[in-house]
Design goal:
The protein has two helices and ten strands. By secondary structure, it is an alpha+beta fold.
């Protein structure tokens, strides 16, 4: 039970709903040029538009993981030149993804590197407005 201030009333804190009832995890990114971002994620990344809300476009990345692209003039935030966010996508074959990314001329493409400590092999590149995308594979293929 918790006492809410000096009111003298006691309330039982409700139980947290279980996460197995969570339907989607959506990360929203904010863009100055939404159509350009859409073309990149559809054509270069191969993502399918799952939910079209007009000025917000939600793409399926995994079964319950989504990426939302938002027109900065309508969303909760504004696009900014500094992008303190990295989108990381775990894939089965990071080297195949690197060959594909290299053929498409993506911005700031790095070479794949193995990180034994993190047990991954990964590379990065930027989307059209500078958000960094990391493609990675697990070295032991169990994580």
């Amino acid at each position: 039970m918790t006492d809410r201030g000096n009111t003298g009333t006691s309330m039982i804190k409700p139980e947290r709903p279980p996460h197995d009832h969570t339907q989607k995890l959506i990360t929203f990114l904010y863009y100055r040029d939404l159509p350009r971002a859409m073309r990149f994620y559809e054509e270069t990344m191969g993502l399918e538009l799952e939910i079209d809300q007009g000025w917000s476009k939600i793409y399926r990345v995994t079964s319950n993981g989504y990426l939302g692209l938002v027109d900065e003039t309508r969303g909760s935030h504004r696009a900014h030149d500094i992008k303190p966010v990295q989108i990381c996508i775990r894939v089965a074959d990071v080297d195949a993804w690197h060959r594909y990314a290299a053929s498409g001329g993506v911005d700031k493409l790095t070479e794949p590197r193995t990180n034994v400590e993190l047990k991954i092999r990964a590379f990065t590149f930027n989307d059209p407005e500078g958000y960094q995308i990391e493609m990675q594979s697990a070295l032991d293929q169990t994580g």
